[in-house]
């Protein structure tokens, strides 16, 4: 560890070729802007500005789109909410939108309540598309107190049942439903900073997102998390049934014809199986900080 011009350099694992330009770059920074620079070497050199307590962590652009994709139970929602808080960004849960249309389909008798989930008829697909086009969806509130409103009715808890989860995955495979909801999602991303989570955000909704993350985890870890959530809600479920439901949804979400769940080529993949949400968010913030830090001057020959 050494200090220079009021900066504190931490970490020694640092590729030699970067030494000189980074040292020069650090000398150009104003002490009031970055109180401390931590230098670490993970998969690539990381320069993390750490501000004094209580100050904003980085100078982020006013407009920023962060895409978080991944399968059910990978931690997208908890991580997305925490990240949105850290970035002072709007958190958008696109899964809730597909759930809302599935819920409305069940309410209106377009979808049967007997658990027989497919195949949908062309008539059902047309009716669901119409529902997605005319329903007024609202996501409202702070990330950890997010309310989902359908035509003014608060259905936040109703859309979290195992039945709605399965139907949401079926409804999400309907081309017309996706077209209607993706148009709304894109409109939400035209201003300010957003953290949007889903299955196709980095590949389809915002292929030019500023940052893309893909969270994954083993089927076992994801099933355990879902099982725990169900138990916390007081539902009587077994781990085996939860695992089967998660696997069925995975299969459908990954193999549908339109905008399936795949990793965008430019997404950073994080395996969350053995990580706490806070640890995952730490990694994501590091990457965003890196992208939004001043670029070191090019190495002079
Ligand atoms: O994230 P979630 O479990 O609440 O999503 C419910 C379903 O909605 C999921 O099984 C797939 C679908 N979905 C999708 O197809 N595209 C998205 N962007 C978000 C969710």
Features:
single chain, 301 residues, alpha/beta, Rossmann fold, 5-stranded parallel sheet, 4-stranded mixed sheet, 10 helices, 41% helix, disordered N terminus, binds 2'-deoxycytidine-5'-monophosphate
Describe the structure.
The two termini are 27 Å apart. Helices cover 41% and strands 18% of the residues. The chain contains ten helices and twelve strands. Bound molecules: 2'-deoxycytidine-5'-monophosphate (DC). The site of 2'-deoxycytidine-5'-monophosphate has 14 residues, from α3, α5 and α9. 2'-deoxycytidine-5'-monophosphate is lined by residues 72, 94-95, 98-99, 168-169, 172, 198-201, 249, 253.
Globally, the shape reads globular
Gyration radius, rounded = 22 Å
> CATH homologous superfamily of the domain at 95-190, by name?
P-loop containing nucleotide triphosphate hydrolases
Uncertain spans, ≥5 residues at pLDDT below 50? 1-27, 29-57
Element layout with pairings:
Elements: E1 2-4, E2 7-10, H1 19-28, E3 36-41, E4 45-50, E5 64-69, H2 76-87, E6 90-93, H3 94-107, H4 122-134, E7 137-140, E8 147-150, E9 153-154, H5 162-171, H6 175-188, E10 193-198, H7 201-205, E11 211-216, H8 219-232, H9 239-255, E12 268-271, H10 277-291
Parallel strand pairs: 2-3, 5-10, 5-11, 6-10, 11-12
Antiparallel strand pairs: 1-2, 3-4, 7-8, 8-9
This protein binds 2'-deoxycytidine-5'-monophosphate.
2'-deoxycytidine-5'-monophosphate (DC) is lined by residues 72, 94-95, 98-99, 168-169, 172, 198-201, 249, 253.
């Amino acid at each position: 560890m050494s200090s220079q011009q009021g900066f504190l350099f931490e970490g020694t694992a640092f590729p030699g070729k970067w030494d000189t330009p980074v040292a020069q770059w650090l000398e150009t920074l104003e002490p009031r802007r970055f109180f401390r620079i931590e230098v670490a070497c993970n998969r690539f050199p990381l320069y993390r500005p750490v501000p004094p307590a209580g100050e904003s962590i980085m100078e982020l652009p006013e407009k920023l789109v962060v895409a978080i994709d991944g399968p059910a139970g990978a931690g997208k929602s908890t991580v997305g909410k925490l990240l949105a808080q850290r970035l002072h960004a709007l958190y958008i849960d696109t899964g809730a939108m597909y759930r809302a249309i599935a819920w409305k389909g069940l309410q209106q008798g377009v979808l049967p309540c007997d658990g027989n989930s497919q195949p949908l008829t062309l008539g059902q697909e047309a009716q669901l598309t119409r529902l997605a086009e005319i329903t007024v969806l609202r996501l409202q509130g702070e990330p950890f107190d997010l309310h989902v409103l359908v035509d003014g009715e608060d259905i936040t808890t109703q859309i979290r049942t195992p039945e709605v989860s399965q139907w949401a995955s079926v409804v999400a495979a309907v081309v017309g439903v996706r077209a209607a909801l993706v148009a709304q999602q894109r409109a939400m991303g035209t201003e300010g900073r957003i953290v949007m989570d889903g299955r196709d955000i980095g590949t389809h909704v915002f292929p030019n997102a500023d940052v893309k993350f893909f969270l994954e985890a083993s089927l076992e870890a994801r099933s355990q998390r879902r099982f725990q959530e169900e138990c916390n809600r007081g539902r009587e479920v077994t781990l085996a049934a939860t695992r089967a439901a998660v696997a069925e949804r995975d299969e459908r979400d990954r193999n549908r014809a339109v905008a399936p769940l795949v990793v965008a080529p430019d997404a950073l993949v994080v395996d969350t199986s053995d990580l706490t949400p806070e640890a995952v968010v730490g990694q994501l913030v590091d990457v965003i900080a890196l992208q939004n830090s001043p670029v070191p001057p090019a190495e002079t020959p």
